Amino acid sequence: AENLQAAIDGETYEFSVMYPEFITTAEGEGNTTVVRAFTFANEAEKVHAELYGKALANLDNNGSADYYLCTICGHIHEGSAPEVCPICNAKASAYDKFD
User: Fold this and answer.
1) Under 8 Å between Cβ of 25 and 18
2) pTM check: above 0.85
3) Could you read off the pLDDT of 12-57 as tens digits, one per residue?
4) What per-residue confidence (pLDDT) applies to 62?
5) Dist. CA 60–CA 64, nearest whole Å
6) How many CA atoms lie less than 13 Å away from 87 in the CB half-sphere?
7) Residue 68 near residue 96 (C-beta atoms within 8 A)
8) Measured on CA atoms in the order 16, 3, 71, 86, is the torsion positive or negative?
């Protein structure tokens, strides 16, 4: 539980403070490629925090789920790979299953 809470706190810091600052800096420099990369990462961190929160809430349950990682932007999806990534629009084939 302590490790999951630390992970939630870390992910929350990343999407609420760290990446927004990075995005602002990249925008100021006119670097659209970096803005895009940091925006994808920021959105993925939100999903990571949500999944850690879900794991923490269900810590005493012994159930398991399949998780799929978008190899383009880092989005993680529970259950099965989505047809289209909600962050970067990659197709399901861009997802790798992990346990």
Assistant:
1) no
2) no
3) 999 999 999 999 999 999 999 999 999 999 999 999 999 999 989 8
4) 66
5) 12
6) 24
7) yes
8) negative
Q: Taking the CB of residue 91, how many other CB atoms lie within 10 A of it?
A: 13
Length of the chain, in residues: 99
Residue 61 has pLDDT above 80, yes or no: no
Q: Which amino acid is at 61?
A: N
- The token pair at 27 is 């925008």
DSSP reduced 3-state for 98:
strand
- For residue 83, what are its two tokens? 């047809």
- What digits encode the pLDDT tens for the residues 62-98? 667 889 999 999 999 999 999 999 999 999 999 999 8
Q: At what angle do helices 32-57 and 19-28 cross, to 10 degrees?
A: 170
Q: Which residue in this structure is represented by tokens 């799929």?
A: 68
* Residue at token pair 């992990």: 98
- Alpha carbon distance, N-terminus to C-terminus of the chain: 19
